[in-house]
Input
Amino acid sequence: MIEELIGDNDVPKGLKEQADGKLVDHFYTYDGLLINRKEDNDIYYIGDSKYYKIGSKPGKESVYKQYTYARNVIQWNLNLFLNPEDKEDEKDRYRKIQLRDDATEGYNIIPNFFISANIDPVTLSYKDRTIRREGQENICRQFDNRLYDRDTLIVSHYDVNFLFVLSLYARDNAGAKAKWKTDIRRKFRDEIQGMLKDRFEFYAMTAHPDVDGEKWLKENFQKVLGKTYSPFLNKEIFSLALDKDDKYKADNDALIASLKENFYVVKCPLGTDPTANIAKERQAVGETSSPAADKGKYLTCLVRKSEIGEDDNDSAIKLYEIFHSHAAEGATYIMLNMPSGDISQVKYLLPIIDNEIDGYYTIKSISFGTRTKIICYNDTQLPVKLPILRIKIGNYHPLDQLYTQGIVPRMANQIWDSSQLNKLKANDSGYCTDEIETISANESFSPYDSPSILFESDYIETAL
Output
């Protein structure tokens, strides 16, 4: 009866009917707990009906079984991404959910709960009444103060008015049933969020402009393992959850102080968007010089629609599309004009595409080559060998947004440090663009057609 009123009826095998023979009473997908966003925010909900004597608690065996349900669901979800070929047979909305976050190695929270029947013995009311049993949550964990750990599992308990549910089921009113399903799912979510707010303090954090946040998390994972997760649309912002129990206060304060050396950290009530608070914190903190600042420099490059490079097999390819779709990893960018400065300090390639920047690539390697430039002087064609850079492209790092203000082609072939990039992101690039003709990336530079000026008519690259 309860299953028809709250559960999904198209659950893939392995979630409700589990591989070890266990059968979950109620299973459905609904809005996740960490953010109040409708799109791409579903999470699995696991429920179990317990019709005991009114007010009694589930036994230890039932609680343990509820934990096992969740562990089986986690493994089923992991298998989707560890074994991509298994995805084909699964329902889309179940397959799209990814519990494990690769950046933080944290796990999303799976709502898990018991449902028991209750009756008001005095009034025998048929009103809709659902109550969470506060203080009766069951928590299974391997480590303390790690909400986002795979082994931290929380089971809540709710009492529903049995007479209301019985009458709703008996009336067989499809509209009333659908409305209650929507209402009770929202109620369960709100109540579980309330329980988490009571137990944990939630923060949002994002790295200082001169720090690679994901790299810092990987290098310091023991400090934040199980405490951080990435639920936001902006994947450079992370959620931090800390247990409110007084016994963790000293450790929590020390962790936040340590994080603030390299991150902006703000309180972020569960379900809220942290963007505005982080922007205020950025302004309050001002320019940073972080202990974990990445000292590597950026080599800027211009990617025109006609730009030619090489793929993994050293075959010629057009680069514009793969740069535009952030898929240039493995390709080789050939820089024809040598930048000034110390190339040995360069770690990243910053492409300018259509007078915009939105991310950069780690440089795997830089090698030198030569090109033969045919020049024309006094009606005589002369071959001249000039140096080029062959830049092997590594993984992509997105910036926090797309930047267009003040981006011009003449910024290409320069070596920047992080402060120059940060100034540009703050619309303070130091370039005066008022009198500069902006050239979009699909326009190539034409040679000067003058008998007194050397110009390039063609070039042939030769091996070094």
